[in-house]
Amino acid sequence: MRWKVRVIVRLKEGLNDPEGRVVGNALRNLGFNVENLRVPKYFEFELESEGPEEEVEEMCRKLLANPLIHEWEYSIEPVS
Amino acid sequence: MVRFAVVVFPGTNCDFETERAIRKAGAEAERVWYKTSLKDFDGVVLPGGFSYADYLRAGAIAARQEIMEEVKEFAREGRPVLGICNGFQVLTEAGLLPGALRPNKTPRFICKWVHLRVADGETPFTQFYEPGEVIRMPIAHAEGNYYADDPSKVRVVFQYSDEEGNITDEVNPNGSLLNIAAVANERGNILGTMPHPERASDRFLGSEDGLRLFKSMVEWARR
């Protein structure tokens, strides 16, 4: 079965996100009232798998994220 | 004579200087493409640079290449494994050293000379330094902000300090926890350092303080 997978990896709550801070400051300089801006990483791919949840979880743990500093979430839907 | 492998990944760029520094410290050194084997070597050095262009996270892709299985074997056998800058990032990503190197607190590439306090003079890499001694080496990195869940379990080897050896926020270039610049594994045979000892291995470079690190490593590997 073929799946469309979308993964978001972000720094854990409380860990400083320097890129997010800079982008947030730039938006504030443009007059937007934003706060706590974070810049997560976004991955999308197609996966041929019988157990996609398990595989995606493993991908995050082994490479896409560093479990020490990141948390992740994903969505998986069948490719029609 | 003991022989060190200097592993070259796509994007490594400090391999020649590192090879030269090891030779100057009295050992044989050879640059080794990451797809070749490490057998016949007594120690391994992962030099600085931008392996795989630092895509995903610095060191993340290199850490998952096949050659790292051999590096892990080296480490298990108690042979010396040194990671400099990108090499340090590779070692943490591979799980050979505790912690992670996050983007610098001020999100920019930092290239400058720093003072370091020798926190641990007992490792195979620092036996020629006095504990508490202040030395000079350059740093050049964008992701050197050291983080560990439990710093009490980390064997800290160098800390960013001022000229007198004081550990303060003002002299912490990247936001590292406890000003940590270099760490070793519990056993001491794996060292990761953000400062570049090979760039401080000759008087004409501005400092020879880094050469003693290679001399310590070579001397230790010889036994």
Automatic annotation (TrEMBL), chain A:
<comment type="similarity">
    <text>Belongs to the PurS family.</text>
</comment>
<dbReference type="GO" id="GO:0005524">
    <property type="term" value="F:ATP binding"/>
</dbReference>
<dbReference type="InterPro" id="IPR003850">
    <property type="entry name" value="PurS"/>
</dbReference>
<dbReference type="GO" id="GO:0006189">
    <property type="term" value="P:'de novo' IMP biosynthetic process"/>
</dbReference>
<keyword id="KW-0436">Ligase</keyword>
<keyword id="KW-0963">Cytoplasm</keyword>
<comment type="subunit">
    <text>Part of the FGAM synthase complex composed of 1 PurL, 1 PurQ and 2 PurS subunits.</text>
</comment>
<keyword id="KW-0658">Purine biosynthesis</keyword>
<dbReference type="GO" id="GO:0004642">
    <property type="term" value="F:phosphoribosylformylglycinamidine synthase activity"/>
</dbReference>
<comment type="function">
    <text>Part of the phosphoribosylformylglycinamidine synthase complex involved in the purines biosynthetic pathway. Catalyzes the ATP-dependent conversion of formylglycinamide ribonucleotide (FGAR) and glutamine to yield formylglycinamidine ribonucleotide (FGAM) and glutamate. The FGAM synthase complex is composed of three subunits. PurQ produces an ammonia molecule by converting glutamine to glutamate. PurL transfers the ammonia molecule to FGAR to form FGAM in an ATP-dependent manner.</text>
</comment>
<comment type="pathway">
    <text>Purine metabolism; IMP biosynthesis via de novo pathway; 5-amino-1-(5-phospho-D-ribosyl)imidazole from N(2)-formyl-N(1)-(5-phospho-D-ribosyl)glycinamide: step 1/2.</text>
</comment>
<dbReference type="Pfam" id="PF02700">
    <property type="entry name" value="PurS"/>
</dbReference>
<keyword id="KW-0067">ATP-binding</keyword>
<keyword id="KW-0547">Nucleotide-binding</keyword>
<protein>
    <recommendedName>
        <fullName>Phosphoribosylformylglycinamidine synthase subunit PurS</fullName>
        <ecNumber>6.3.5.3</ecNumber>
    </recommendedName>
</protein>
<dbReference type="InterPro" id="IPR036604">
    <property type="entry name" value="PurS-like_sf"/>
</dbReference>
<dbReference type="GO" id="GO:0005737">
    <property type="term" value="C:cytoplasm"/>
</dbReference>
UniProtKB/TrEMBL annotation, chain B:
<feature type="active site" description="Nucleophile">
    <location>
        <position position="85"/>
    </location>
</feature>
<dbReference type="InterPro" id="IPR010075">
    <property type="entry name" value="PRibForGlyAmidine_synth_PurQ"/>
</dbReference>
<dbReference type="GO" id="GO:0004642">
    <property type="term" value="F:phosphoribosylformylglycinamidine synthase activity"/>
</dbReference>
<comment type="subunit">
    <text>Part of the FGAM synthase complex composed of 1 PurL, 1 PurQ and 2 PurS subunits.</text>
</comment>
<keyword id="KW-0963">Cytoplasm</keyword>
<feature type="active site">
    <location>
        <position position="198"/>
    </location>
</feature>
<comment type="pathway">
    <text>Purine metabolism; IMP biosynthesis via de novo pathway; 5-amino-1-(5-phospho-D-ribosyl)imidazole from N(2)-formyl-N(1)-(5-phospho-D-ribosyl)glycinamide: step 1/2.</text>
</comment>
<keyword id="KW-0067">ATP-binding</keyword>
<keyword id="KW-0436">Ligase</keyword>
<dbReference type="Pfam" id="PF13507">
    <property type="entry name" value="GATase_5"/>
</dbReference>
<keyword id="KW-0547">Nucleotide-binding</keyword>
<comment type="function">
    <text>Part of the phosphoribosylformylglycinamidine synthase complex involved in the purines biosynthetic pathway. Catalyzes the ATP-dependent conversion of formylglycinamide ribonucleotide (FGAR) and glutamine to yield formylglycinamidine ribonucleotide (FGAM) and glutamate. The FGAM synthase complex is composed of three subunits. PurQ produces an ammonia molecule by converting glutamine to glutamate. PurL transfers the ammonia molecule to FGAR to form FGAM in an ATP-dependent manner.</text>
</comment>
<keyword id="KW-0378">Hydrolase</keyword>
<dbReference type="GO" id="GO:0006189">
    <property type="term" value="P:'de novo' IMP biosynthetic process"/>
</dbReference>
<dbReference type="GO" id="GO:0005524">
    <property type="term" value="F:ATP binding"/>
</dbReference>
<keyword id="KW-0315">Glutamine amidotransferase</keyword>
<dbReference type="InterPro" id="IPR029062">
    <property type="entry name" value="Class_I_gatase-like"/>
</dbReference>
<feature type="active site">
    <location>
        <position position="196"/>
    </location>
</feature>
<dbReference type="GO" id="GO:0004359">
    <property type="term" value="F:glutaminase activity"/>
</dbReference>
<protein>
    <recommendedName>
        <fullName>Phosphoribosylformylglycinamidine synthase subunit PurQ</fullName>
        <ecNumber>6.3.5.3</ecNumber>
        <ecNumber>3.5.1.2</ecNumber>
    </recommendedName>
</protein>
<dbReference type="GO" id="GO:0005737">
    <property type="term" value="C:cytoplasm"/>
</dbReference>
<keyword id="KW-0658">Purine biosynthesis</keyword>
